[in-house]
Amino acid sequence: MVKRRLPRHVGFIPDGNRRWATDRGLAKQDGYAHGIEPGLRLSDQCMSLGIEEVTIYCFTKDNLKRPSAQQARFTEASVAFAHAIADRGAAVLVVGDERSAKFPRELLDYRERRGDGMKVNLLMNYGWEWDLDGLRGDGLRSKDVSRLDLIVRWGGGRRLSGFLPVQSVYADFYIREELWPDFEPDQFDAALTWFAQQDQTLGG
Q1: Residue 139 pLDDT > 50, yes or no?
Q2: Which of 78, 3, 90 is nearest to 44 (CA)?
Q3: How far is CA 95 from the centre of its chain?
Q4: Helix (H) or strand (E) holding 122
Q5: SS3 helix, strand, coil % of the chain, rounded to 5?
Q6: Measured between alpha carbons, how far is 177 from 169 in angstroms, rounded to an integer?
Q7: Whole-structure pTM over 0.70, yes or no?
Q8: 60 DSSP β-pair partners
Q9: CA angle, 125 then 174 then 6, to 5°
Q10: Residue 17 and residue 21: Cα distance in Å, rounded?
Q11: What whole-number distance in Å separates Cα of residue 16 and Cα of residue 180?
Q12: What angle do CA 66, 67, 72 make, to 5 degrees?
């Protein structure tokens, strides 16, 4: 069997949590907690495949325009996921504006990478303008995150939504129509099969 060419670094945009909740007669904020277990299954899948680094979009500065109940629940879900993935042995780095009161204080220790396993970068209270504004001083604020090879977005959206604009410059972009809480491993398998078929010249 020919070994499939794997991306070294994959980004994930797990969209559709609120739509998933409303489709089931739940409050929009109830969808976020249902995204934790799919995230752990996807991370386990990446670890077993030998993928070196993943980045997950947890919440952005723009998401903070949402009602307070939603803010509380997506922050709670993000913190729970961070602790759970760290317990699985991942090398966790949280990237986001820690100076803001909206940054989860219990994750401040993860503003520097902790752990020795697969690199997992979690974008929390992240904003592309905040990231690029670092170039005025010490450099890109997400400078510890490597260039992306593949980005997978759930929920049918066809936009990056500010996801790591510098590291995404040559990434292939794969869309799933399923809402994030309905994740199944075969969805990522399909993304990897598609990725292996792409002609990656990086402009050459």
Answers
A1: yes
A2: 90
A3: 11
A4: strand 119-126
A5: 40, 15, 40
A6: 23
A7: yes
A8: 126
A9: 95
A10: 6
A11: 5
A12: 95
